[in-house]
Specification:
The chain has 7 helices and 7 strands. The chain is α/β, with parallel strands linked by helices. The protein has a single domain, classed as Rossmann fold. A 5-stranded parallel beta sheet has the order 2-5-1-6-7, with helices on one face. 37% of the residues are buried.
Length: 213
């Protein structure tokens, strides 16, 4: 385990972008390009508020693309704990039940902490903790195609439900809350995980900053 006494020995990276933009692919490529066991990943999706108590009809109305859907207070506390060299128990969230599991995932403090999610640059308190702020950009049609494939397979929705949810929430929330956070980004990666040059530039910057620390 990498013990970190203060933030000077740790690099915190925030990776934001619209739903289906390719953030997860970018994170995988970064992890692959760095030394083994150098990276811990915090998924913003794990910090959705627990709504398991709601009825099935109420759950269908949850707006997963609004900042208020996330428990940023807990996320910031967990990030502070990691910076202080303490391990955390990251929640496990299910889109099917809209609830947190009893189990958690232990995340250890390491040289690099990546916070990944649609709102990774939206919360001012979180933003101040980030050494590198990244926005993964992608065409809206490409994002919609990925969302359809993901939500049908992983989230138990049918085709019409995905399209209705996209029209009602995802598109509007992206334009209102996610796209504007691009202005905070140090690095913008167009075409998501397909942009090998952009990912290589980001990797080079990470390695340089690590060497300077």
């Amino acid at each position: 385990m990498y013990i970190c006494k203060n933030k000077l020995h740790m690099l915190i990276i925030g990776i934001a972008g619209g739903s289906g933009s390719g953030k997860t692919t970018v994170v995988r490529e970064i992890e692959r390009g760095l030394p083994k066991d150098a990276v811990s990943i915090i998924s913003l999706d794990s910090y959705y508020k627990d709504n398991g108590h709601l009825s099935d009809e109420e759950k269908k109305k949850i707006n997963f693309d609004h900042p208020s859907s996330f428990e940023f207070k807990l996320l910031n506390k967990h990030l502070d704990d990691l910076i202080a060299g303490k391990s955390i128990e990251m929640p496990i969230y299910s889109y099917v039940t809209c609830a947190r599991a009893k189990e958690t995932i232990t995340v250890e403090p390491k040289k690099i902490i990546i916070v990944e999610g649609i709102m990774a640059l939206a919360n001012p308190t979180l933003r101040k903790k980030l050494d590198i702020k990244v926005f993964v950009d992608a065409d809206s049609d490409d994002r919609l195609m990925r969302i359809i494939g993901r939500d049908v397979v992983e989230r138990g929705r049918n085709y019409n439900e995905v399209l209705n949810h996209y029209a009602l929430w995802v598109k509007v929330m992206h334009e209102t809350f996610i796209e504007p956070t691009k202005k905070y980004a140090d690095i913008i990666i167009p075409q998501g995980g397909q942009n090998k040059v952009g990912i290589d530039i980001l990797l080079s910057k990470i390695k340089l900053m690590l060497a300077e620390k």
